[in-house]
């Protein structure tokens, strides 16, 4: 393809946009709204997931050892070797007792000097999602008597995170379809206005791609324009809201704007360009069939 | 140039537009395609330019079996065929020059070459002085001459004309016919579908008559109808 031809494509795309300027602006605005919705959904989803994983990550597993347990160092090494385990701490029965006494605020808990607590390990998983798996494996280690972790809580959290993911992306999918529909309808107007031109082009031997390019560019420009608007809105609104939330609560820590910025920009422009191009291709299709 | 054997075209709605059509048009010929509306003239032209595909039979154009053309080959195949219509199909928002250049722009000819060739054909059809004018400022005959210039600017082997004089008065029609004759003299094969009895009778060229999709007459120097 020659450079001059690309200039021609851009000129034609621009003509199409200007000729239907009201519709073009509407389409750009609608794409922006759709992308903002998309952004809101995905930011809520990722933040909930982030929060869920954060919570899961704070969970630790306690493994109590039997009286007859082997050498602690060996056991620790064995548990440390389980995939997904980040850190293992040995808690001796004395330490356990001290901790318990402190937690209960009762100094002479074990009056007769008898300490019924077993030695134990505190195990920190690298990823909260692995808690159950690791707990299962720790239970099988010889010398481990009992494994304790907030099982129901972990399961619930797991389920919630997954549910959010599925629901969020189901909705995302619907929003994407709406975006596509809007783009198709907008480009269709330009295509319709130029259907005679397309017919002549076909008859004098223009290739289908030669005919498609200007429309594709038109769709892509609409997508980029919409994405630009949406990026600004979403990033500004996010900064504002997370700032407010930070003042209200210290427990709820959201992803920072800096953390989400590359994804928002990449995602919006990616979706904008992709859907603009795809929408154009779909709308030109039926006029190329001669 | 065009060879058809037992060519059939049946539309999805069941209409049989062409039935067992066999004919041979040689390079450099000037052929009139006559017959009442619905006889299959336009269908035949549409098959030749591969806007439609034959239902059955064989059709070869410029050495290519049109039924076997791959989708991506069609544009290149069409670049060797010119086409003019009864309604000219010019772009109202483009000047005469732009209308003609368009046919070369879309096949990516160099600008210098475009200018040269466009000037040449505009001169040939006698409209070089109106190159920067818009079609709405031209008469019907002039518009058809622009359309003709566009059709031949890529030096086609074959020129198809579908009722090119259908909207023109007799004198203007003759101007177009003179041009077609000139183009034919330069070596382009011409197939023209027409209802214009007078033109066919006066030109004394080969006449192929169709009726209800069938070939009913093929005379090398004929008139519009068989004299009673």
CATH architecture of chain B: 3-Layer(aba) Sandwich
**Percentage beta strand of chain A:** 5-15%
Give the overall average pLDDT of chain A: 82
Largest sheet of chain A: 4 strands, antiparallel
Largest sheet of chain B: 6 strands, mixed
Our measurement of the CA-to-CA distance between the termini of chain B, rounded to an integer number of angstroms, reads 33 Å
Strand neighbour order, sheet with most strands of chain A: 2-3-1-4
Of all chain pairs, the largest interface belongs to:
A-B, 18 and 20 residues
Please state the overall shape of chain B, judged from the principal axes of the Cα atoms: globular
Number of beta strands of chain A: 4
In whole angstroms, the N-to-C terminal distance of chain A is 23 Å
**Would you tell me the structural class of the helices and strands of chain B?**
alpha/beta
Query: What level of helicity do the residues of chain B show?
Result: 25-40%
Could you give the order of the helices and strands of chain A? HHEHEHEHEHHHH
Characteristics:
heterodimer; A: 290 residues; alpha+beta; Alpha-Beta Plaits; 4-stranded antiparallel β-sheet; 9 helices; 4 strands; elongated; B: alpha/beta; Rossmann fold
Question: Would you mind describing this structure in some detail?
Answer:
The complex is a heterodimer of chains A (290) and B (228). Chain A has 290 residues and is an alpha+beta fold. Chain A folds into 2 domains: 3-55 and 156-285, no CATH class; 60-149, Alpha-Beta Plaits. Chain A is built from 9 helices and 4 strands; from the N terminus they run ααβαβαβαβαααα. The mean pLDDT of chain A is 82. Chain B has one domain: P-loop containing nucleotide triphosphate hydrolases (Rossmann fold), CATH 3.40.50.300. In chain B, 32% of the residues lie in helices and 25% in strands. Chain B contains 7 helices and 10 strands. Chain B has helices spanning 41-48, 74-78, 96-105, 111-124, 140-152, 170-185, 197-203, and strands at residues 2-10, 16-25, 30-34, 56-61, 64-65, 81-84, 158-162, 189-193, 206-211, 214-219. In chain B, α4 packs across α5 (140-152) and α5 (140-152) runs parallel beside α6 (170-185). The longest helix of chain B is centred in the last third of the chain and has 16 residues, at 170-185. The A-B interface holds A 2, 4-5, 8, 196-197, 199-208, 210, 290 and B 49, 51, 72, 75-79, 83, 89, 91, 102-103, 105-108, 111, 150, 154.
